[in-house]
Amino acid sequence: MAQMHLVGFLQAQNCTTLASSWRHKDSRTDFLTADYFQEIARILEAGKFDLGFFDDRLSMPDRYGSDHHHTIEHGIRCVKLDPIVTLTMMGAVTSRLGLGSTASTTYFEPFDVARCFQTLDLMSGGRAAWNVVTSLNDGEAANMGHAEMMEHDRRYDRADEHVEVVLRHWDSWEDDALIVDKESGRFGDGDKVHRIDFKGRFLQSRGPFTVPRSPQGRPVLIQAGSSGRGKRFSARWAEMVFVSYHDVASGKQDYEEFKRMVAAAGRDPDSVKVATLCYPICAATRAEAEDKAALIASLPLEIDALSLLSEALNFDFASKGMDEPFTDAEMASIQGLQAIRDRVVKATGKKNPTVRDFMVGSGRGKPPMNMVGGPKEIADKLEEWFTAKACDGFVIGACVVPGSYADFVTHVVPELQRRGLFRKDYTGPTLRDHLGLPRARLGDWRVPAMAAE
Q: What are phi and psi of 317, to 5 degrees?
């Protein structure tokens, strides 16, 4: 029987994606310490998760009112630690858990990304993954020395080149290039380390690269683009894709459509794993879980949603009244997460939704309450999604840290294992082993058109 994949959705910040999570009575507040993240890592590895991965932004949410005070005052995702450094601390106390981090193709140079992630892959014994993002708002642009965010599709055009450069660097050392023979004095085979001499429309890089191959060949590529252009990008490059499907029927349809896109890109659809985001609130019994859910639901504030919508859509929601419709021009100008815009239009049936419509239709800043229960109830829902082929696994988000992860591992993982839906132990040391992917071979990322170059 096929086995589902489980990913821990992490934030190197003062809260989870749920901005109000830090206010929960059971949430740890020592998020500036290594121990905070190392406890999460130990919990996820005890639960045999494929990996923990860090979402990341290069600015705090300050688009609302073009000011950061509300963000600091309410703790709305205002702390942003470096996720790679944080992952290194997590990797030091684990031996199997995959370690994934976000890095922007818009603002980071390909050589730097390649070196950082390949080094993490080596230091962790082949457990690294790069979550490829293009960034999304003007706050990030300003922090990185740019006047404004690059247009949506152009960011993806640049990202295509960026990923290719990174992959070329990762491939520039052949597997047996290192010799390290003290007697002969020969360290490596110069004929097996190559320059890449890449010159594209946006980027150029010479090489040779400075980091040899890792136990899994190279880091795993993750992507979460949900716009039309983002999906095409994922179908071309990603080995694991994070999505946010909202029900089994539409999830199954979107899953099938995406797998067809992967095939159309000249790749094996089974080699790309799709995991959908969920926020399970679980306990030993349904009644206990419902009590937990009631407390969690009481925490969010209206400003949480307004601030996070402004950040994600790169539009200042303070500039409009709560019940004032967006104009056609304003809707077209949104260059952030366009999938949120499109989802609100679909959910409300309004071509020009209001600010209030965006708050309700997006659910931004509020925990989904569609997965609350004891072990059986949560496992039933996950099994329904998985057996319907609406996904290959799940990205487990937290409402309380570290309690949400611990509850899931304690109550739900054993039930999934009992049903034969999830592994009882790791089958190998690398992240590719966990995902059922072979060790990466030189050039295996090239589609036929590229291979002919």
A: -70, -15
